[in-house]
Specification:
Helices cover 75% and strands 5% of the residues. The protein is mainly alpha-helical and 126 residues long. It has a two-stranded antiparallel ribbon. The protein is built from 6 helices and 2 strands; from the N terminus they run αβαααβαα. α1 crosses α5. It is globular and about 35 Å long.
Length: 126
């Protein structure tokens, strides 16, 4: 992913964080700057921590037919809560709901902006 796409995805994730925090009473973010920090924290956690957690929990993921990945996502949200002081989640179940809603809102935003089709339309030789 190039720098331009990283910036666009981070900004869209920030917007999604603000929207989800507004919709869920158990999630609090103090503003867009805090949401931007949450988006950056989640990007780092998804890049470095999530693959390790997935590797260690392969048996649980197989036994639950992949549903354990939702637990991993909720744990990453709680880690982001710990990392960013102006972002709070009131518990595991709010983190789980927030991660599901964040994925849905971010997907809609990516479709709306056309970012999800960017790779399909781009010439592979570019």
């Amino acid at each position: 992913m190039n720098l331009e796409r990283f910036i666009i995805h981070t900004l869209l994730t920030s917007v999604a964080v603000v929207l989800c925090a507004y919709l869920l009473p158990g999630v609090h973010v103090s503003g867009f700057g805090s949401a931007l920090l949450v988006a950056l924290a989640l990007a780092l956690l998804n890049q470095f921590v999530k693959p390790i957690l997935i590797l260690f929990t392969i048996p649980a993921t197989i036994l639950t037919l992949g549903l354990f990945l939702l637990v991993i996502n909720a744990l990453l949200i709680l880690l982001a809560d710990w990392m960013v002081m102006s972002f709070t989640v009131d518990g595991f179940w709010w983190a789980l709901l927030f991660s599901i809603l964040l994925t849905l809102v971010k997907s809609v935003l990516l479709i709306f902006t056309g970012e999800n089709n960017r790779n399909r339309l781009r010439n592979p030789e570019d």
